[in-house]
Specification:
The chain is of the alpha+beta class. The chain is built from 3 helices and 6 strands; from the N terminus they run ααββαββββ.
Length: about 140
């Protein structure tokens, strides 16, 4: 009997599953949360553009072959509409589970689509951040 794919009911669950897969060096788990479509794309921090499941699998295998990545979101802006969610995050990257200081920071944009499988990643773009420190937002506005 084939194993059924997990149905993600909200986009946040997919983003959490992505971080968890990187933490556990689980390439198969990371691929399972991508849209089942050949048009998916991923840009890794080194600038490599990957298209489709095969290229993304190879990129993830190279990325995780030596060590796990522990991502800690420090700033996140989300835009969600019917069937589409966009996450623009800055993530502190730790190379060890109990590491306090970040090894480096990444700016990550995730585009998720809701399809018959629930929410899935359609595009991911990661680049090294040029910032070394980040301030927490302190200004309030009338949108909340």
């Amino acid at each position: 009997m084939p194993k059924l794919a997990r149905l993600f009911h909200n986009a946040d669950e997919v983003v959490d599953a992505w971080r968890d897969a990187l933490r556990h060096r689980n390439v198969q788990g990371a691929l399972a949360i991508w849209l089942d479509d050949d048009s998916i794309t991923c840009v890794l921090p080194e600038g490599h553009r990957l298209s489709g499941h095969s290229e993304i699998r190879g990129g993830l295998e190279r990325l995780l072959e030596k060590q796990a990545l522990f991502l800690e979101p420090i700033n996140c802006i989300t835009h969600t509409t019917l069937g589409t969610a966009i996450y623009d995050t800055t993530e502190a990257v730790h190379l060890k589970e109990n590491q306090i200081e970040a090894s480096f920071f990444l700016n990550i944009t995730l585009v998720l689509l809701q399809a018959n499988q629930g929410w899935r990643i359609a595009h991911l773009h990661a680049s090294y951040s040029t910032e070394n420190t980040f301030d927490l937002p302190i200004a309030t506005h009338g949108l909340h």
